[in-house]
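Issue: copy button drops trailing tokens. Both records pasted manually instead:
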Amino acid sequence: MSGAELNRVAVLSDIHGVLPALEAVLAEPEVAAAERIVLTGDITAGPQPAEVLALLRDQGDRVLWIAGNADRELVEYRQGERTSIPDPIAPFAAAQLTDDQVEFLAALPTSLTLPVRGLGDVLFCHATPRDDEEIVLVDSRPDRWTEVFADVPETVRTVVCGHTHMPYVRLAHGRLVVNPGSIGMPYGRPGAHWCLLGPGTDLRVTRYDIPAAITRLVAECAYPEIAEWADYYLHARATDTEALGAFGARDGREPLPTR
């Protein structure tokens, strides 16, 4: 934990290299006025990773960074520690980063804790406090939360995580759990999703001109399938029901009985 209690913190998660969506959120007055902007990972795996990193680094020390699993995978790919990445756009994204940007991503922490007014000590992470790929959902069972909170200090009463691209706020064993949703690849509802913390939790969505953003990505990004990629993700073609169904098998729940 570092610094004095903060009044307002904007949380931006899962930007996935979508520059127009990020620009729209950074232009929000309450994001501009926030004392800190916390990025909860998966910043770069998408169509404009270098441009997204450059814009965020231009914001200076007000931005606090956490790496996500997709950022780690890009680093591992560039450093020769892996020869493939499951996400089809990820190898393209890795190739767009400068060596300096790869080194910057490689040095990012996997979590941080900040005191926020009204919320106490807040732990920020990508997926769960102990793993950057682990799945927890709005309807994950209590035993699952016991597992993922096992090593979280008792003083932490709020946990903010991303990874699943769907916003929610819920209680789990007396702790408040917040997922801001995704800036660049939302599931269930279009728009750039983020969260404002302090003294409460306020889930936000920034509407922006999606057809214009798709046109811009097609013009500025050399990824061969960029038109299809942008149409699918910016329009949130994947529903929240489909995403919950796909992720549910990975949060440790019992499979549904077969007839």
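Record 2 (pasted manually too):
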Amino acid sequence: MSPMTGTATEKTTAPDSVSAAEPVPVPGPSSAKSAVSAPHDASPSRVRQVPSTAAWVRRAVRRLPHLLVKGAIKSAAIVALLLLWETAPRLGLVDRIFLPPFSEVARAWWRLATDGQLADNARASLVRSFSGFGLAVAVAVPVGLLIGWYRPVADLLGPLLEVFRNTAALALLPVFVLLLGIGETSKISIVVYACTWPILLNTISAVRNVDPTLLKLAKSMDLSAPRLFQKVILPSSVPVMFTGIRLAGAVSILVLVAAEMIGAKAGLGYLINASQYNFAIPQMYAGIITISAIGVAFNQFLVVVERRLSSWRVPVGG
């Protein structure tokens, strides 16, 4: 390289080095204050959070009329029934002694609730009902899966199941009382017997009606029998299986109330029966309403559990 070229290069780069060496002006107090406060004011999370909250509020406000209309439609029949119940006895359409107005029943329900009778009897019934229901689920679901999946087991137990499932549970109540006494064992056993058949039969039907295309696809992937059962059979069986479980939940309460009317000293069935004998008609209807409310709440709980376990299903509208 020639000296002149080197000199030209030095002259060319000199201004850049001088400009790079120039001192940077120090920001004033106002500039520093704005620089410090800028990240807080222009925070991306704050910018995103405010519109999302406002949008959620706007959506909730827009949906409020729809929710109110939907709730009014769903509760219209119940409100109409309660109004009819209140007005019919007062207008003399029915005998007020045997069907008191709903307001009198509500006051009787409140008296039972405040003095603890309702809670004690409801607790006794719930313990018996849920114990029997839980035992029925624990027994009927595995047996139903086994019968539905293995044809030899179905051929062996099929005739016996046909005999017992066509025998009413309440018809066997005297047998349970004679064999097990009038204590808690007979009442829980009759609930287990009554709840077993809806769960068992629906589980068998669910396993046998699994989509054959799914089974062929799973077998083409060389899945083992346990994996096939876990990934295909059980998820496909949940909806039909829970239909039987929900039916058993209703049966567990109804059969128990009938069982508590014989030889029981506590429970909602005992409360209804004792109120009838003592001619405390409002208390009798209060016990009936309590049973209905428990049944509705238990069914809604099972619906929520079913939705959680079958979340893979595609909605009908989707």
